[in-house]
């Protein structure tokens, strides 16, 4: 899984999301040591060029933003729309600067996160003897990735076809890079959370077998090794894998928290502005009435990505609570020394799950879940009501 991610992330360098580590970083791989001196020098030079590109990307984004501000002047009679469009354009530029900054200064957390995914997969296979069914899961992930990319590309092309005919385009052509980068960043995080949810489901499957053995020993399955399932080492393996999952979510929040916050904030502004223009077009305030047609194709992929990401994050939190509830159902009988150690570990694990929870947050400003979607809808509705009141004055 880790190698699959690195292959996909190779193209993220263009937008500054990720840069592959140097061969001399932390733990040297056998592949890096087997390279000839010439190849090693070439690899190090390539790494320096990649990092140089990221450092050049930051001022280039600032220049692109300043050029957009200098090129677009307010149109008489549209001061409110120009102010809102400028605020939205500024938030898009800030989001891209934060994403590029995370790619540079949060590279180590990102790299540790990818290694943790490999360690979780390795632990599930070897320590729990669990078939995580990557041959089935990986095609689904690729299908999800292709669906999100093709949907975004097709909808953007239809939007541009309808949008270029309109009388006011604002900062659109200056912000097209910003919009594409933010959407790809969300798709990247969507794939990460999807993989983590799959690993949590695999852990829940093994824990369900343990609960079934402890609560109903008469209902045993033939293909489960219950002698190993009841050991202290097996429960410790489950706890260690959960700790790895929790650390992976913490790293995800660390290297992508600020970009998540800025992107969600931008999308709230985008929803408000787009729906406002669509409402004006629908009511006949504008010369052309096809604003709402273009707005639909712009909002459709954005809505699907945000809803899917929030749903996956909510699902991960539900799985975390399911693990906690299953641990509380485990019954340990006997008073031998091994059973006392088993009971102590079980109590420690249950207490740990009660004190901490797995969730995806935007630097603790908000948590990505289903409630966030309701909060976004409420904020957008409030914004539209206020703007329409200004329109009627």
TrEMBL record:
Superkingdom classification of source: Eukaryota
Entry's localization field: Cell membrane
Membrane-crossing segments per the record: 52-70, 82-105, 147-164, 176-196, 255-279, 291-314, 372-391
InterPro entries: 7TM_chemorcpt
Pfam families to which the protein is assigned, alphabetical: 7tm_7 (PF08395)
UniProt keyword Oxidoreductase, yes or no: no
Principal localisation: membrane
Keywords: Cell membrane, Membrane, Receptor, Transducer, Transmembrane, Transmembrane helix
Gene Ontology BP terms: chemosensory behavior; male courtship behavior; sensory perception of taste; signal transduction
GO cellular component terms attached to this protein's record: axon; dendrite; neuronal cell body; plasma membrane
Protein topology in the membrane: Multi-pass membrane protein
Protein family: Belongs to the insect chemoreceptor superfamily. Gustatory receptor (GR) family.
Functional description taken from the UniProt entry: Gustatory receptor which mediates acceptance or avoidance behavior, depending on its substrates.
Listed name of the protein: Gustatory receptor
Organism: Bactrocera dorsalis (Oriental fruit fly)
């Amino acid at each position: 899984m880790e190698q699959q991610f690195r292959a996909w992330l190779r193209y993220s360098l263009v937008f500054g999301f990720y840069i592959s580590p140097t061969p001399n970083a932390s733990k040297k791989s056998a592949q890096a040591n087997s390279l000839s001196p010439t190849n090693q020098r070439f690899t190090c030079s390539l790494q320096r060029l990649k990092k140089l590109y990221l450092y050049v990307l930051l001022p280039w984004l600032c220049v692109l933003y300043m050029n957009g501000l200098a090129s677009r002047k307010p149109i008489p009679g549209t001061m409110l729309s120009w102010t809102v469009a400028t605020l939205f354009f500024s938030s898009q530029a800030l989001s891209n600067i934060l994403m590029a900054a995370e790619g540079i200064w949060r590279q180590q957390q990102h790299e540790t996160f990818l290694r943790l995914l490999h360690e979780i997969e390795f632990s599930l296979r070897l320590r729990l003897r669990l078939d995580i069914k990557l041959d089935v899961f990986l095609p689904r992930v690729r299908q999800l990735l292709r669906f999100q990319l093709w949907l975004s590309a097709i909808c953007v092309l239809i939007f541009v076809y309808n949008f270029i005919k309109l009388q006011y385009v604002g900062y659109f052509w200056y912000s097209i890079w910003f919009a594409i980068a933010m959407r790809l960043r969300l798709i990247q995080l969507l794939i990460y959370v999807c993989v983590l949810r799959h690993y949590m489901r695999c852990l829940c499957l093994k824990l369900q077998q343990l609960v079934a053995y402890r609560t109903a020993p008469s209902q045993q399955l033939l293909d489960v090794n219950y002698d190993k399932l009841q050991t202290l080492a097996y429960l410790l393996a489950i706890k260690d894998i959960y700790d790895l999952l929790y650390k992976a979510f913490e790293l995800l929040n660390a290297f992508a928290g600020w970009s998540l916050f800025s992107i969600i904030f931008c999308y709230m502004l985008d929803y408000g502005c787009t729906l406002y223009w669509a409402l004006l077009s629908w009511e006949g305030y504008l010369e052309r009435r096809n604003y709402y047609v273009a707005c639909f194709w712009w909002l459709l992929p954005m809505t699907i990505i945000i809803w899917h990401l929030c749903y996956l994050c909510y699902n991960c939190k539900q799985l975390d609570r399911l693990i906690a509830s299953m641990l509380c159902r485990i019954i340990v009988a006997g008073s031998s020394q091994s059973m006392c150690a088993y009971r102590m570990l079980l109590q420690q694990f249950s207490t740990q799950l009660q004190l901490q929870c797995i969730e995806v947050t935007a630097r603790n400003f908000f948590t990505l879940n289903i409630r966030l979607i309701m909060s976004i809808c409420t904020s957008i509705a409030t914004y539209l009501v206020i703007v329409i009141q200004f329109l009627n004055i």
